[in-house]
Amino acid sequence: MITKDIQGNYARVAAAYDGAWADVLAVHARAVADRLPLAGARRVAELGCGPGRLLSHLAALAPQAQVIGADLTEAMIRRAPAEYGRVVADVQALPFAAESLDAVVMPFVLFHLPDLPLALSAVRRSLAPGGSFAAVTWSGHDPHPAYDVWVRVIDEHDAPADPSPQMPSNAVTSDPAKLAAALETAGFGQVDITVERFRHQPTAAEFLAHSRVIGSMARRLDLLPPERRTACLTAAERALAELAPGDFVESGTILYSTARAA
To answer: Under a CB-based contact definition with an 8 Å cutoff, are residues 105 and 32 in contact?
Structure first.
């Protein structure tokens, strides 16, 4: 199961995620959903839906379907549009009956799961035979000077190690061959994985605003005493101000994965 510390972290960053990342990632969520045959689907779920930015797109792709958003915490799920089904659920212990869904979409979720095989098996059980599945996962990352500066400043202020790493399955989900094998082992067929590009360019202020509340360095920052935390943020703001706009570009490769329930 997802541990309580991970649940607590997701609840804490719900508002920040909604404001900083949801729209950026939704572009890729829509793109992978477009690859699924949803026109005749009757029940479609997005697992790990966050604030539910994808749900209306799924409804447009599957006009006859009941669209459901599921997420780990109530803090996230209550941000999703109320006109769709909303469920607080751990992907590793889904509340859906066997073979009750026609499609499942999981953008930027799989790498967060402590037990990826268990989760994929649970998703496969929930899908009707021939049901479709789609996911987006991180793969490779290009050099990112702004993040390197952020890490350096955090280290210089002696922040403790991250107590709760949030990407325990990344070694599998970032590798096309390993991810394909995991899907096939869970009972999926017609697995197709393509490598796509990701690019996002925040301003210095936007970068610091979301980096101080989301991610490994933010969790380390939270462990500092208040005075040192303030000094760390001041130093980070000063160091980041010296960078060129291009140094804030976040780019790399991501994997679009689709499959069918065998």
So the answer is: yes
Q: How far is CA 51 from the centre of its chain?
A: 11
Q: What are phi and psi of 91, to 5 degrees?
A: -60, -30
User: What pLDDT, on the 0 to 100 scale, is given for residue 4?
Assistant: 46
Residue of 106, 87, 99, 92 whose CA lies nearest to 124: 99
pTM of the model: 0.90
Query: Residue 62 and residue 68: Cα distance in Å, rounded?
Result: 12
Side chain identity at 174, as an amino acid letter? S
The residue among 5, 21, 2 whose CA lies nearest residue 210 is 21
Task: Sheet containing 188-200: give its strands across.
Answer: 85-88, 66-71, 43-47, 101-107, 127-141, 250-261, 188-200
For the chain, list residues with pLDDT below 50: 1-4, 7
What pLDDT shows up at residue 19?
A: 59
Backbone angles phi, psi at 221, to 5 degrees: -60, -40
- CA 180: distance to chain centroid? 19
Q: How far apart are CA 207 and CA 21, in angstroms?
A: 11
CA distance 232 to 7: 26
The tokens 């541990």 sit on which residue? 3
Running DSSP on this structure, what letter comes out for residue 248?
Answer: G
Q: Is residue 77 within 8 Å of residue 69, measured between CB atoms?
A: yes
- Number of alpha carbons in the 13 Å side-chain half-sphere of residue 61: 24
